[in-house]
Design goal:
homodimer, about 650 residues, alpha+beta, 7-stranded antiparallel sheet, 6-stranded mixed sheet, 24 strands, globular
């Protein structure tokens, strides 16, 4: 087992510790403060069933019943425990930034409760404890048991890193030890793996803080066992004691949906349920890096390449089929029926971040940035109190009708979901933003995202301070005060940037490119660096291998995708056109959600007849068009939205 | 009750009897002969489970088991009996045209078997007889019991009209008498109605041949009871003896899906499951006409207008959402996710035909023609051996992937369906084509469709013969030899026709328009009439209230919609454009399925980069485009197809 680690030849970059980064960013502060002041407290109320007019979560209550503190039974989704775990994870990140006695007390009380609910042998899952105690591990395909365990583990690691407290870590180690006994290659062990991936990457994080190699070995086992013949998901259904949760014992499981149609090392196309897929791929990258497994890393990179080259929405969304929330096929990127789940883009960011850390290539952070600034932030309202699960490229509220193929599209964010995966996932991501901002390796300090704030970090055994001042993503000018020290600074040059300039203490500088980063060699001594990433509105076109967007264009400026909203442009957005030669003007407008806009002289197609079909093509009349950032849409009540607009 | 009929003030037109019409049409003969020579025999084999490599139907076997002739149980869909009924209906029409001793013997044997399977009290439904004998009428919402009864009744009427034999008519009268006892307004009767409509129009047909008013009254009861408060479908689920077929007792039924959200007279938007909807509306028209109920007729016309003005595909398809095979909302006409079930267009033709007969307005027959020549014929392969259930506007085989939102789209016709509603429905429609061709009322003989053949019909007590010679729908020239007699001839002027000319015995004639028909006053004496409906390829545009087709055009010529196929135009049809000024050329090409084509100089958008997104719009290169008739697509193996093409 120790060979696993000795073989680590990837020199993976490490993110800064959360405590080392102080973010005070004009763009993100709204969201990170909302997470602290609104989302985390709101979600605590949700977990405790104290939100009016909202479906109760039952999450905390389930733990109380499992702990024997209350009479009752389990309520909610089979993975309801994971909501509490994701909340604890977010709290862990939040406390790493800023102490909050009251919040920490709430979290500690929940952790104590979880400890009370845990069984003697370490088992922890209130659904099975309360509803199906004899059916543990009897339906890995459908029942999210290992998925929930993974979220407990991630919460424990974050809470330990944020507070130094080990109570939850002890709980999850006992649980992970049980899982390591139950699952494995031995004859008396279960040769299965999760139907919903997540525990793989969680176990690597647990290994990182505990240094216990058995957790890494277990993660590797789950990844390598997946998709082998005979297929475990098919085999478990044949067992007499199979737990037939969905009453579908006789249905063959959709193996591709679960990324289990073949061994992961043989995969070359991202497939199946999008969230599951990217969680798995992130875990593959983690295990590959930790064990020096080039073949596994190659597979992860192949899957990543497939996503960004053939299956990615311009907003960083993934998961094209609203039926089963899944990937479909290359170049199939429908605009009004896509799923693009907020959680899937969070998972994509997790995955890309890992590949960036392992390979030291900046372009992976382009994907992180795209997902983060567009789909992920679209997932949360600007008041932090409502959430999108599904993030389409166009919405026509008129046809978002229940019991039709567009039922999953919502023209407005929802206060809290019965299936509440996205809101707590958003909270944990936004609380851990600093992990995405920069990385350190030996003498190199890498800036991956341009977020305003200060950094105090150890680089090659020196305490280095860095101050970043910027109005990114609306302004491409980034001022960096590089504190004294002998280190190198690597600044990501985003793929969207066509032109840039750089000065060091006022003098123009041509910095060499290294893996997509501008490399500034140290030493520094309170050096002022000015990076100007020239930002102008750009028309973006999709490869015409994709049917839906042929003849259409989308507008971007910097990493932000823009969209048309009905509030600014009137109804029937599909009638609008952006002529090929129309100039694009960017300016600030504080009255708009997002505060900025792109305007252009456009056209609207109008018709003279009421007939559904006619031989008249209609006529085009002038209309000025206003585009706002995609992430800011649907903050002014229900209305139409559209990213891709017909050109010409 | 008799007041119902006395109040008949609509003077509904009557179609010619099948036996009076001899079709020998260049266009339809392929299909009508196929129905005789291939489809009906093939379907007989299917009903008898004698097709290799095809899921067994079990339909005949179910009757044998119910009759006690064989051991076993019920197999197949809950509405499996209706396949046998639709086959018998098609045979009835077929025998009306042409005797076939062998076929009649098979049908008689099946009818005898059905009689043996019928219960003492008249009940007939092998699913309930074999699987749930105590649950008859205990789940009207989900279980198709009255729907299947309706198809038995339609079969009996057609078989009686085709052969004069009453055995099946007697069977269904006994069953209908039982239903009339069980359902009705009295306290000891069930106040329900079918979850899948069909029996309403069937009962009116039964009334027409039997003159038994109780059948008309029962049809009217089902129509007027529908959607009243308290809602029957909600109430039946509350009953202790509810038959919980789908294990969804606790789910509220989707009332709109079943056209039961409000009384039908209050409806103004076609909604819910498309086949059910148009069968209901056809029944409403029938009952309205038979009882002189203007309010009910107005409701039917309002629903029809909603369909053709806001919910109709250019091919005469209806049912926009593949999820639940249903109508969605006005102007929502997606091209790659629509259902446009073959059966729904057959139902639309039935509905429009009735409104045409009642109102004497030609435009209703435009809809019949559109549905018939495009979606309905698309439902059957040119060899008659495979069938489309779903008829989309564009198909990209690459993304028709199982377990995604496009799983219902098939790039190739299927040999026979597990749910085999469309093939027998097609057979019965094509066997009864003559009913759609012409109608008679008093001294008026109306030609609604231009099908080559001869007619011998009674008009105002005169035996009139008519001969129609034409190569319609590919040629707009129609030669009519009007046999001697004092009658008027009304020739439908199709809505697609921009220009026409008419001669009578060689002399140019300006005929007045009457309800959309060119009216030629009699008497005639072997008069030669030449009608020339000028036919040229036309670009058709959709009202820009509909999002999907903005900036696109579709080609039609006469009633035929044309489409691009990959076989003629290469892959990635979405990259093709038809410039606004490109000339359209029509010509014959016997090598093509359908035998005709429209060609035009077009363009293809190509890209220089492999990137999914770029700032380059790509470039347009010239490519000649070939369009073939929509109904003829997918007769050369799996390939892409597209109706709407980007213009400019």
């Amino acid at each position: 087992m120790t060979s696993l680690i000795r073989n680590n030849r990837f020199n993976r970059l490490r993110p800064a510790k959360l405590a080392d980064v102080r973010i005070r960013d004009n763009f993100f502060d709204r969201y990170t403060k909302l997470v602290q002041s609104a989302v985390i407290p709101y979600q605590w109320d949700a977990l405790n069933d104290q939100l009016p007019d909202t479906e109760p979560s039952h999450s905390i209550q389930n733990f109380r019943v499992a702990a024997g503190l209350e009479e009752g039974t389990f309520h909610g989704f089979i993975f309801q425990d994971s909501d509490a775990a994701k909340w604890l994870e977010a709290v862990g990140y939040s406390l790493a930034h800023e102490a909050n006695v009251e919040l920490e007390a709430k979290a500690d009380s929940l952790i104590e409760l979880i400890g009370q609910a845990q069984e003697e042998d370490g088992y922890l899952n209130t659904y099975f404890q309360l509803k199906a105690p004899d059916s543990k591990w009897k339906n890995l395909c459908d029942c999210h048991e290992l998925y929930v365990a993974g979220h407990f583990i991630e919460a424990a690691v974050a809470y330990y890193q944020g507070t130094g407290k080990t109570a939850l870590l002890d709980i999850v180690c006992r649980f992970a030890d049980l899982i390591a006994q139950v699952f494995g290659p031995d004859e008396d062990q279960i040769h299965g793996y999760p139907g919903h991936e997540e525990i793989e990457l969680a176990l690597v994080r647990l290994w990182e803080v505990t240094k216990e190699d058995r957790y890494l070995a277990l993660a590797k086992y789950f990844i390598d066992q997946r998709g082998r013949e005979p297929n475990y998901f098919e085999a478990e259904r044949e067992q007499d004691d199979f737990f037939d949760f969905y009453h579908n014992k006789n249905h063959k499981p959709i193996l591709e949906y679960h990324q289990a149609e073949k061994p992961v090392r043989e995969m070359d196309t991202a497939g199946g349920h999008a969230v599951r897929a990217v969680y798995l791929y992130a875990g593959m990258a983690d295990v590959a890096a930790a064990t020096g497994d080039q073949q596994l890393l190659d597979a992860a990179i192949r899957l990543y390449d497939n996503i960004v080259e053939k299956q990615l929405y311009i907003t960083g969304g993934i998961g094209k089929s609203n039926h089963l929330e899944r990937f479909s096929v290359d170049y199939d990127l429908p605009n009004d029926a896509n799923y693009s789940e907020t959680c899937a883009s969070i998972g994509l960011a997790l995955f890309a971040l890992r590949l960036g850390q392992i390979t030291k290539q900046a372009h992976y952070h382009d994907t992180v940035e795209l997902a983060l600034y567009n789909t992920v932030l679209s997932g949360i309202a600007m008041d932090g109190k409502s959430f999108f699960y599904v993030n389409p490229m166009e919405v026509w509220p008129h046809n978002c009708k229940e019991h039709t193929m567009r039922a999953s599209l919502k023209p407005q964010r929802q206060p809290w979901f019965g299936c509440a995966c996205c809101p707590p996932n958003l909270a944990r991501l936004l609380s851990s933003l600093a992990l995405y901002a920069c990385s350190v390796k030996e003498k190199d300090l890498l800036l991956n995202l341009y977020i305003q704030g200060e950094l105090q970090v150890q680089v090659a055994n020196q305490a280095v301070s860095l101050e970043v001042t910027t109005d990114y993503p609306h302004d491409g000018r980034i001022r960096i005060r590089a504190g004294a020290g002998d280190y190198n600074l690597l600044l990501r040059l985003p793929a969207w940037c066509r032109d840039h300039s750089l000065t060091r203490d006022g003098k123009p500088l041509e910095a060499p490119l290294q893996g997509g980063y501008l490399r500034l060699a140290g030493p520094f001594a309170d050096t002022e660096i000015l990076l100007n990433l020239h930002m102008a509105p750009q028309r973006v076109y999709m490869n015409p291998m994709a049917p839906e967007e042929c003849g259409k264009t989308a507008l971007m400026r910097g990493p932000l995708v823009y969209c048309l909203e009905e509030k600014d442009n009137g109804p029937h957005l599909h009638q609008l056109r952006l002529p090929k030669d129309a100039p694009l003007t960017f300016d600030r407008d504080p009255a708009l959600p997002g505060g900025y806009r792109i305007t252009a002289p456009g056209l609207r197609l109008v018709h003279e007849t009421e007939d559904l079909y006619s031989t008249s093509p209609g006529r085009l009349i002038p209309q000025d068009l206003t585009f706002i950032p995609y992430h800011a849409w649907a903050n002014r009540g229900e209305n139409e939205m559209r990213v891709w607009v017909q050109e010409g």
